[in-house]
Amino acid sequence: MTIRPDPTFHASPKLAMEAPPENFAYTLLLSPDFSKSDALAVIDVKPGSPTYSQIVHTVTMPNKGDEFHHFGWNACSSSLSPLSGHAFLERRYLIIPGIRSSRIYIVDTKPDPTQAKIHKIIEPEEIFKKTGYSRPHTIHCGPDGIYVSTLGGGGKDGTDGPPGVFIMDCQTFEVLGRWEIDRGPQTLHYDFWWNLPRDYMVTSEWALPPQFENGIVPEDLLSNKYGHRVHFWDLSARRNVQTIDLGANHQMALEVRPAHDPVREYGFLGVVVDTTNLEGSIWTWWREGGKFHIEKTATIPPEAAPKEQLPPLLQGFGAVPPLVTDIDLSMDDRFLYVSCWGTGEMRQYDVSDPRKPKLSGSVHIGGIVRRTPHPNGKTYAGGPQMVEISRDGKRVYWTNSLYSTWDNQFYPEGMPGAEVMANAGANGGLELAGDYWVSFPQGYRAHQIRLDGGDCSTDSFCYPSA
Amino acid sequence: MSAADWTVAGLWLAVVASGLYHGANPGMGWPLAVSAGLMEKSARALFMALWPLWAGHLLAMLLVMLPFALLVTLVQWQRPIQAGASLLVIGFGVFRLINQRHPRALARIRPAQLGLWSFAVAIAHGAGLMLVPIYLGLCQAADLDAGHAAAGRLINTNLGMAVLVSVVHSAAMIAAGGCAAWLVYRYLGLKFVARSWFNLDAVWAVSLIVVGTIALVISLADASHA
């Protein structure tokens, strides 16, 4: 505990944007064949630094087969909530779950990111025993502790009971137990986020572990058995208050991105693929008259391609689906970035009018068929995937891997880890930075990125920007 | 003014000063009033939020003082009660010093339930306990004035005193908190929320110990004079 609030905690999104820019990008490295230990890479992103866009430190884990995916901070701007009294926590520990092993690592980034080290390891048994959940995934720092979403329930294959959210103590990192009191019809889980002063949470659906751990199951996809619903919760009562079905053809409702400004009661949701036409889609949800509403507000078409250029999984379709696998909203809630992992495109939408997204920028890199190289001439395997935006909205970072077994199905030729950055124009437009290219060690893929001092998918705020 | 008058004046000053201290502490809720004002984009919403914060704090003070209001009617036990109350305050201060964690149950209170939140926070932090030794001192002073009145009258006097102390303290609290909220909302800006927030947990715990110790010393000194 500190005497003053952590200088990286900001009362409003506007103040977060005005704060000094990031110096380091933390990126998760995974060994797709489980032959090596997964790791956390610390990358220098300070312009002008002699080690710019290079890994300056690596924390290698003592186990193998964890499969790192998403991670998050122990504390963020939500600590300034006048209700919770956690203003004196530090943004210091990274909470890194292994979605295959269900193990959680706590990494201490102080006194300096280049000396980051393991602080604590929570073994899978503790999570199984205390929560009945498995495969921990998304991390958010919340009002009464660290919230962790899970993808699996109990039992060996994670299908014994529904997955959900559990809470960890934000100081001792002890697993406290399940968050939900009444889950309603919710049986699948993926992402979650909230509006703290308005006291609601939104959760999404991917699939149960047998549907993803050994690769995508085409029969399940074509019979619309992946998640296609979105759930709205009363945050402090821990109850599901509304579930909306997007329609069974809208398979895999993944990232949930609420507006950062708590006055704005809307947000976005990305859907990977529409099984009737292979489109990817963006949905806008909002609350009006005490009820939640959601509608499809943007679609991205598939791109036709000759059979011989497609992996076996897609040959029957003669087209590449865009595969919207990640979205991220800028801190000022103005630009939504959309990863099209299949077609190899990063799209930027102006969402000033949230129910009418306007395409305002785009860059192509990688892609199943396009295989667009980086401006520096290097080959970028895979497509744009986990995307993170700097707090000031000027830099957009992304990596290329989706999930070990799925990477192999969509990009069977292999996928060396890659991380790039694009500069965003003040009024839209996107351009890849020629000098930002992170080389990862042989045999590793790169997944989620977190920026020091917070980023656009970490911090939630209790005060509006106005 | 006589020495006794000075004591009474000093005690009332302590009631007001502790109110100002509680109110200025962001942990007692003034940032919630700022948030309400900004979320609704209206200064009126800010002032409307102060009411439940005030009421919750007032209720917490009363709830803690009422048992003592009834106890001090046992005149012959007055000194042990005072010493006991002082020890209780010291003990709670020591507990807060060792365990500075916030009860997780506070997070279950809805952002809109400002009154309940204010009440729960004041109870959890022992804000009312801090007033108890001061309150007992005032009761004693009033009792000296009145002589040994009938128990029934004494209860009324003590209850009246508890209400008066709570109201004065809470009024000072909300005046300080309201000023802080208004200054931040109107002039200083949100940056001040993070900048003004000092970790008062340790200071708060020490305040409890100091108040309890002073009260204990005074009551022991009185006992030796008697």
Task: Explain the overall architecture.
The complex is a heterodimer of chains A (466) and B (226). Chain A has 466 residues and is mostly beta strands. Chain A has a single domain (13-451), classed as 7 Propeller (Methylamine Dehydrogenase, Chain H). Helices cover 6% and strands 39% of the residues of chain A. Chain A has helices at residues 13-18, 124-131, 218-222, 312-315, 404-410, and strands spanning 24-30, 39-44, 55-60, 72-73, 93-97, 104-108, 117-122, 134-142, 145-152, 165-168, 175-178, 192-195, 200-203, 229-234, 239-245, 250-258, 266-274, 280-288, 291-300, 303-304, 319-320, 324-329, 335-340, 345-350, 358-364, 387-389, 395-399, 418-424, 430-439, 445-451. In chain A, the strands form eight sheets. Chain A has a four-stranded antiparallel beta sheet, with no helix packed on it. The mean pLDDT of chain A is 96. Chain B has one domain (3-225). Chain B is 81% helix and 0% strand. Chain B has helices at 3-24, 30-40, 43-71, 78-98, 114-125, 127-146, 151-188, 191-196, 201-225. In chain B, α1 runs antiparallel to α6 (127-146) and α4 runs antiparallel to α6. The radius of gyration of chain B is 18 Å and the shape is elongated. Chain B starts with a helix and ends with a helix. The A-B interface holds A 1-5, 7, 9-12, 15, 80, 82-88, 143-145, 171, 176, 196-199, 236-237, 262-263, 462-464, 466 and B 26-27, 29-32, 34-35, 38-39, 41, 100-102, 104, 106-112, 117, 121, 190-191, 193-195, 197-199, 201.
